[in-house]
Specification:
- The protein has 164 residues and is of the alpha/beta class.
- It has one domain: Rossmann fold (3-Layer(aba) Sandwich), CATH 3.40.50.
- The protein has 6 helices and 6 strands.
- Helix 1 links the parallel strand 1 and strand 2.
- Helix 1 crosses helix 2.
- The mean pLDDT is 92.
Length: 164
C-alpha cells in the first residue's frame, strides 16, 4: 500500500498536534511494514506525515522536486528535510534546476503515480497557485486515487486569521 501526502505548510502549534494525531490514526489502520509513505518533505504536513510513517514502521519514499529545494524550505524545515531524507528507503530527485510551481506540480504528479491513497491536510480553500494542495487533491481524484482529507476541528493556518 502506497500512501502519498499533500498539505499546508503553515500550521500553528496546536494544529500540528491535531494533524499529527489524525495522521497517526489513519496510518495505524495499516499493519507495520505493509505501507510506504510518499512525501516531498515540505514543512508542515509533509514532515509530520513522514515522521509518523517512520515511527509506525512504514517505509518512506521521498520525491525531491528540484535541485536547491532544501535551501528553498528555510532553516527550520531544512533540518527536518535533511534528517528525514537520510532515513528514507528511497529518494527520487526530479531533474528541475530550481524549485517553483512547475517542479512542485511535477512532484505532486510523481507522488500520485503509483499511490493507492492520498492524505490531504487541507482546509478546503481553492488553489493559490500550481502545485499546491488543492491541485494535488484534484489530480488524485481525477486519477481515481482515494483521498482522505484531514482538517481537524479548531485547526488553523498561521497565515490565516482565526475563523478564516
Amino acid at each position: 500500500m502506497r500512501i502519498a501526502i499533500t498539505g499546508h505548510r503553515d500550521l500553528d502549534e496546536r494544529t500540528t498536534a491535531l494533524v499529527d494525531a489524525a495522521i497517526r490514526g489513519r496510518l495505524r489502520a495499516r499493519p507495520a511494514r505493509e505501507f510506504t509513505g510518499v512525501s516531498c518533505l515540505a514543512a508542515g504536513a509533509d514532515q509530520i506525515f513522514a515522521r509518523a510513517v517512520l515511527e509506525l514502521g512504514g517505509d518512506l519514499e521521498v520525491i525531491v522536486p528540484a535541485t536547491g529545494y532544501a535551501a528553498a524550505l528555510g532553516t527550520p524545515a531544512r533540518g527536518g528535510f535533511e534528517e528525514l531524507k537520510a532515513r528514507a528507503s528511497r529518494v527520487r530527485a526530479l531533474a528541475h534546476a530550481r524549485p517553483g510551481p512547475g517542479p512542485y506540480r511535477d512532484a505532486g504528479v510523481k507522488m500520485l503515480d503509483r499511490a493507492d491513497h492520498l492524505i490531504a491536510v487541507w482546509d478546503g480553500t481553492p488553489a493559490q497557485g500550481p502545485g499546491g494542495t488543492a491541485e494535488v487533491v484534484e489530480n488524485a481524484r481525477t486519477a481515481g486515487v482515494t483521498v482522505h482529507v484531514i482538517w481537524p476541528a479548531g485547526a488553523r493556518r498561521t497565515g490565516t486569521p482565526a475563523g478564516g
